[in-house]
Structures are given as structure tokens and as C-alpha cells.
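User: Sequence recovery, please. Input:
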């Protein structure tokens, strides 16, 4: 927490790690109506932003204003993402990713587990690759892929009825 004011180099190292591949896209920071640019400017902008967050507000419309600001920020993020190019995944990348997935996990709501995909025929992986690239190009995850099964696992000495 102290890095923001005492060690600027560490602060920017942490910021760049969080930004990932989009670090070249974000060059300006708006706080309210003020634009902050450059390394020192962005640091000052974050300082001002978090100082404002730490102050109590007597404004009755605070929630409405905050909600409006959040909507504006979401719109800006969507604009940045929608203007970024989408690189399609190739079969080698999919194969490499499949090798790193933990095996031995429970099946999903359709009864499919990762072993079905890893040990399945090449035609299955080709279809999965097509689906992944469609998801990336549409920038939307289908609802059926957001579903899961939650199974509580009780510890040995704990009653199943507690809580």
C-alpha cells in the first residue's frame, strides 16, 4: 500500500503487471473532468481518485452519480475491448492448453469431463476450436457454458445439519 507514495517504480511495476497486454492502450486517465497523462500524471490521477473515494459524502444523489460513473466506465471498457483485434486460436494453442488442464475433476451438467475432450478424436477438438473462435469473435460466452454444479463437501467431524 505504501508503494504508491514511497516507491513509484514498484507502483508502476505492479500496475503494469495488472494491465497485462493492454498496457499500451491505456495512456490517459480521467478523474472527474480532469485528464492525467504520462507516468507522473497517471500516478497523480490515482492519488486524487482514491482521496475522493476516502471522503465522506453528504450528497443524497451519491448513489445515482456513482451508478452513472460506473455505467460510463463500463461503456469506455467495452469501447476499448470492442476496438481491439481478436486473434483466433489455432489447434496447436488448444492442444497446449488442454495438456495443462487438471484432470480427474467432476463432470459438468452435461456429464462431460475434460478426459472426454483430451482423449476424444481430433474432430472433437476441431469443433471445440470452432466454438472457441466464435465465442472470441462474438465476445460473448453462451449461457450454457456459465452453468455448473455445486456440491457441498462436508468435513468428517462436522454435522451436515449445522448452518
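Assistant: Recovered sequence (163 residues):
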Amino acid at each position: 500500500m505504501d508503494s504508491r507514495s514511497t516507491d513509484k517504480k514498484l507502483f508502476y511495476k505492479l500496475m503494469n503487471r495488472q494491465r497485462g497486454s493492454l498496457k499500451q492502450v491505456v495512456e490517459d486517465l480521467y478523474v472527474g473532468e480532469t485528464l492525467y497523462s504520462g507516468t507522473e500524471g497517471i500516478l497523480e490521477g490515482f492519488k486524487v481518485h482514491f482521496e475522493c473515494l476516502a471522503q465522506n459524502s453528504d450528497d443524497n444523489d451519491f448513489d445515482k452519480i456513482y451508478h452513472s460513473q460506473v455505467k460510463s466506465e463500463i461503456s469506455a471498457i467495452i469501447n476499448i475491448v470492442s476496438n481491439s483485434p481478436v486473434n483466433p486460436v489455432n489447434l496447436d494453442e488448444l492442444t497446449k492448453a488442454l495438456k495443462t488442464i487438471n484432470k480427474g475433476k467432476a463432470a459438468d451438467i452435461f456429464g462431460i469431463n475434460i478426459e472426454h475432450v483430451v482423449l476424444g478424436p481430433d474432430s472433437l477438438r476441431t469443433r471445440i476450436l470452432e466454438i472457441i473462435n466464435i465465442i472470441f469473435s462474438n465476445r460473448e460466452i453462451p449461457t450454457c457454458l456459465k452453468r455448473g454444479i455445486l456440491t457441498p463437501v462436508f468435513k468428517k467431524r462436522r454435522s451436515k445439519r449445522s448452518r
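The CA atoms of residues 65 and 130 lie 42 Å apart.
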